[in-house]
Amino acid sequence: MTLEKTLKPTESELEILQVLWQHGPSTVRFVHEELSKNKEVGYTTTLKLMQIMADKQMLDVDKSSRSHIYYAALEEEKTQQQLLGRFLDAAFRGSASKLVMQALGNSNTSKAELDEIRNLLDKLEGGSK
Amino acid sequence: MTLEKTLKPTESELEILQVLWQHGPSTVRFVHEELSKNKEVGYTTTLKLMQIMADKQMLDVDKSSRSHIYYAALEEEKTQQQLLGRFLDAAFRGSASKLVMQALGNSNTSKAELDEIRNLLDKLEGGSK
DNA sequence: TTCCTTTTACGAAATCATTCGTATATACTT
DNA sequence: AAGTATATACGAATGATTTCGTAAAAGGAA
Fold first, then answer.
1. What SS3 state is found at B72?
2. Residue of B87, B115, B116, B128 to mutate for A, most A C-beta atoms under 10 A
3. For chains A and B, what is the number of CB pairs under 8 angstroms?
4. Tens digits of per-residue pLDDT, B65-95?
5. How would CATH label the architecture of B11-72?
6. Which of A37, A104, A129 to mutate: most B Cβ within 10 Å?
7. What is the torsional sign of CA A64, A69, A70, A73?
8. What is the pLDDT of residues B15-52, one digit of tens each?
9. What angle do CA A30, A32, A35 make, to 5 degrees?
10. Measured CA to C1', what is the nucleotide nearest B67?
11. Minimal CB count within 10 Å: which of A8, A69, B2, B58?
């Protein structure tokens, strides 16, 4: 088992990770253009951030071609799980059901997704005896 | 309708809000002692933070007695809702069902709470037609 | 080759959050 | 009253995050 350092991506870092998770390995240029869809940001800012993230081992880099290719080094689900745990404590004092209720109440979730959640509930209640 | 500035409490600020939400209006001393249960922190640090929060109108202060009494000026649910919205976008790219599934999967939620969630699901599916 | 564009490298500034030392005021204790 | 404890006020240091200017390197176009 490898040393699982529990890195905490900052908000900006998370934005970059999201691009890489969604689109796969990318150049700085591509990531920068994605980020630019949502906010004003300078190219070298994005570059610097990604370099820092590579330093922290959040990203891997392939430097074989001129435009370096960056890879997310953190797994999406594992990272989300960690963030969620922290958020749950910080914002909801650990009450998962409160969080879930609010999340469901305030978002347009499709019937299919609701059914998926219901299935999970069935499994959970079944197992919890 | 009053100007609803959408303040974003920082992590430390949120810790203080949690104490006030949970215990009601409190002195700096009390809040500080609550925080100290979880982490090392200096008294003047807590004081300063609460003063800053009062500046930002996150807290109201009653200065009539020597030990000032601080009140949460933000509603718990409304604040949680805002934080949740942001978190959902930042960490789950807006997918509430993914968040909910992960939250349920990884926390020990009681049968009673699961049933409560199920009821909400029923209401949602009913209404969404 | 020369010029223009794109990329990375580097370093530092700007911003924001957190922490705390010190001073001063107020109340309590003896 | 004198001394001690506890409170707020103030200002500044620290630290982390974010931003970006400038330069150097690499590649492509004329």
1. strand
2. B87
3. 125
4. 999 999 999 999 999 999 999 999 999 999 9
5. Orthogonal Bundle (1.10)
6. A104
7. negative
8. 999 999 999 999 999 999 999 999 999 999 999 999 99
9. 115
10. D7
11. B2
Q: How far apart, in Å, are the Cα atoms of A62 and each of A13, A55, A68, A69, B87?
A: 19, 13, 6, 5, 31
* β-pairing verdict for A59-62 and A26-27: unpaired
Q: Using an 8 Å Cβ cutoff, are A38 and A19 in contact?
A: no
Beta-strand runs (E) in B11-95: 59-62, 69-72
Question: Where along chain B do its domains lie?
Answer: 11-72, 76-128
Q: Which residue is nearest to nucleotide C18 (CA to C1')?
A: B45
Residue listed under structure tokens 């969630």: B117
Distance CA A61, CA A56 (A): 12
